Amino acid sequence: MAEDIKRRQAGRFALCTMQERAVDWGDVLLSGAVRSLTVTVWFMCLLSGHATGEEPHCSDFLSTEPASPVLRMMGFSRDHSPCGLPFNITANVSDLPLWDPKKPSVVIIPGKRPPVVQPSWVRNMAGDLLTTGRSNVLAADWLVPGDQKLIDGARDAGESLAQVIQALLAMGSSPEMFHLVGFGVGAHVAGIAGASLHGSIGRITGLDPFAPTFTEADPSLSLDHTDAQFVDVIHTNFNPNEPVAALGASKPSGHVDFYVGKGHLLPGCPQGLIGREKYLLCSHHRAHQLFTSSIHASCPLTAFPCNSLADFKKGRCTHCDWPGLHACPQLGFNITWLPSDRPIPFQPLTAVLDITSVAPFCVTPFLLELQIGGDSPLEAQLFIRLKGGVTTTSTMLLSGPDLMSFEPTKGYQFQVSANCDGDFTTMQLEFYTERLLYLDWRKRKVKITELAERKWFVLVFIPTSCYFHSRQPSNDVFLDFKVKHNFAMTAAKHC
Hints:
The chain is of the alpha/beta class. The chain is built from 7 helices and 22 strands. It has 2 domains: about 350 residues, Rossmann fold (3-Layer(aba) Sandwich); about 120 residues, Sandwich (Lipoxygenase-1). The two termini are about 35 Å apart.
């Protein structure tokens, strides 16, 4: 059985390879002077969330290219998990055993995909949603002819989905009980459906809304905060994966826009083109992985209201103060932090967070305040590592990819996102310089202060050269620093 599944998967990707020149999808932009890229089918396979490993044999998703746009609804239940079942709208509620009009309904909408590929992540998300026991779980599978423009296909799918929801409303449900979750182009499909229903839908979650072709499109054809009573957007690929431009939108479009990490090369993703598919698409797919993980996460994915990623890294976004909001926003399915008032009682905001490489993806945030003394600047990169008991974090770069000039007596703040939870007692700071020679008179002294009822034992290294990676304990110029643990959180229990 396992060998048969592997052969079927190999056949899928063989077909993708055979057809790689048959699709010209000029919607993905190259950065630099080159403006467009002919994208192969294998790229499209992965954009929609490809099947990997031993997948169940399901026939729920559409599998042949249609002559005209088509949308097929499917429902999920514990009795038939993980496969979806056809969900055909009739005039009688009793004919819909997979749907209860008294329950909230979550509708999952995948991105554009070729018929040969099934988005297995939809089944994973549906399965986790079912275990909550609180919602009807549906999926809106859609396909368009290969020669139809992407924007036109999204519009047709969104309008068809709106008609389905309208029919369900006529059977006794209410708009605020619907939550649409769309990935990639599916986020815009959700937005179009919501706009067609005049923004009455309770919630839309956009999972890294697809940017190419939609960024400059008519605003009515892309997701925005007027499409539902509450719109939250998760941005995971808002910066380019060279040489391909960002797949996700960088512009905020919801009531709350969550920006994850640096918008590309997220933790756990390949750092180079050796695995080209994963390199290009890993950060994009992290959006639906984060949302699925959040359904039963043991820790919150807390984000901080912030104007920019740069401000976040500099420790300028360490509070949750935002008019109309009483707690820091949390990325994911659960929105207990959100005020129940409608319309939303605060202005649209952007919030930033770091993640770890594996589920549940939570970090523990700290604020590091640092000041050096002496007579001359220190040109270096600053790294940090935290230790406590048997727990040790990875070594984290705080100051950026280039050397930073630390001016004497000037204060510096850094947001530290520990990638594991622990009662940390030791902090190791490392300053990497480009000095080729180690001179004894360059030793620097460290002064330690105690703050927030925590005693820290601090090790500081100022190596002679980043090339030799030599680590010389420092004893000379004065370092005065403070560490604050911002919020009491439960984070990942392992590093």
